Amino acid sequence: MISFYRHFIFLLAAMLTPLVVGAETITVDGAYARASSKLAKSAAAFMEIKNMSSTEDRLLGARSDFAKRVELHTHIKSEDGVMKMRRVDGGLLLAGNGNLMLQRGGDHIMFMGLTQPISDGEIIQLMLIFENAGSFEIEIPIHLKEMAASGSRSLTHYTFSYAQKFDKTQKYAYSLRLTLEKLLVKSVLFVCLGNICRSPTAEGIFRSKIKTKGFKIRHDSAGLTNWHEGHPPYEPMKNTCEQHGYNISDLRARIIKKEDYRDFDWILAMDDQNIDELKNIYPSDPENKIRKITSFIDGSLNRINVPDPYYTGDYEASLNLIEQAVEAFLNQIFE
């Protein structure tokens, strides 16, 4: 169902997006991935990316169902002269009219925590995320054997026009805009102050509803403070959830981490204060991931906060509002 709508929306986006005269392009050549064995837990991808625009861009990251985490990595020489691999934060620069070589012993894309056994020659999907050009999906083969330099690159070639990406400056219908921006969502993080009432409730409701709908989406919840770190949900909140058929007893509080922005497609907060705190943690939100959970509800409710029942004592009211918000989120993003 999601696959059908993805193709439909991409076609619709192409029809709605204004034409750009002399549209600039990004090209990707010779992309392939390398793993050491069929049972490897990690792999790396290599390719040549060319920027046909005179304006510099930046490869911010990548996503794939092939691994739990996909990161940009490079090699640096330590003080003792040994080359060591390091994660790249902030992306890799793609100069205007320049190219970016992702290659062995240099910059590359790292797959960590592979989600399936590997077959030599298998094709995987990889989404490349650029600061200006947007996000583009490519298919790359996996090689298990060591390859000679002349044969180390596949024959794949991709050309992406800036005009093909979703234009965020246009005033699309609100629900269509959300669908275009986040149709490929694979992970959601719910956030509140202490992670013992509202955000675990949101996660519990969310995982129940996606199970019913047949969606496979990674989910978690976190708090903005460490007041209750490691603790289970607050007993009155847990009991209220159980009365509505949601079991959250297995969840444990944790504090939000800097890398959560990289690891999740959506970060949904419970109130305006949460949003302000998140902006302090993540001063820049280039992918528009951070939203108040009630903003997905139609009508006047989309501007209100989810009250913290730890202080109000009204667990039923908070649960009912979260339930509406989660359902609205799923309806706008996935249906």
Polypeptide structure, described:
- With 335 residues, the protein is an alpha+beta fold.
- The chain has 2 domains: 20-164, PCu(A)C copper chaperone (Immunoglobulin-like), CATH 2.60.40; 185-334, Response regulator (Rossmann fold).
- Helix content is 26%, strand content 30%.
- It is built from 8 helices and 15 strands.
- The chain has helices at 2-16, 174-182, 198-213, 235-243, 260-263, 272-281, 309-312, 315-334, and strands spanning 25-34, 42-51, 57-63, 67-77, 83-87, 92-94, 99-102, 108-114, 123-130, 134-143, 157-161, 187-192, 218-223, 266-269, 290-292.
- The strands form 2 sheets. Strands 1, 2, 3, 4, 5, 6, 7, 8, 9, 10 and 11 form an 11-stranded mixed sheet that branches. A 4-stranded parallel sheet has the order 13-12-14-15.
- Helix 3 packs across helix 8 (315-334).
- Mean pLDDT is 81; it is low at 1-23, 148-153 and 162-183.
Based on the model shown, name its key terms.
alpha+beta; Immunoglobulin-like; Rossmann fold; eleven-stranded mixed sheet; 15 strands
What's the layout of helices and strands?
Blueprint: H1 2-16, E1 25-34, E2 42-51, E3 57-63, E4 67-77, E5 83-87, E6 92-94, E7 99-102, E8 108-114, E9 123-130, E10 134-143, E11 157-161, H2 174-182, E12 187-192, H3 198-213, E13 218-223, H4 235-243, H5 260-263, E14 266-269, H6 272-281, E15 290-292, H7 309-312, H8 315-334
Parallel strand pairs: 1-10, 12-13, 12-14, 14-15
Antiparallel strand pairs: 1-2, 1-11, 2-7, 2-8, 3-6, 3-9, 4-5, 4-8, 9-10
Helix pairs in contact: 3-8
Summed up, the helix count is 8
Strand content: 25-35%
Residue windows where pLDDT falls under 50 for at least 5 positions: 1-23, 148-153, 162-183
Distance between the termini: 9 Å
CATH superfamily of the largest domain: Response regulator
**So what's the CATH class of the largest domain?**
Alpha Beta
Helix-and-strand structural type:
alpha+beta
Overall structural domain count: 2
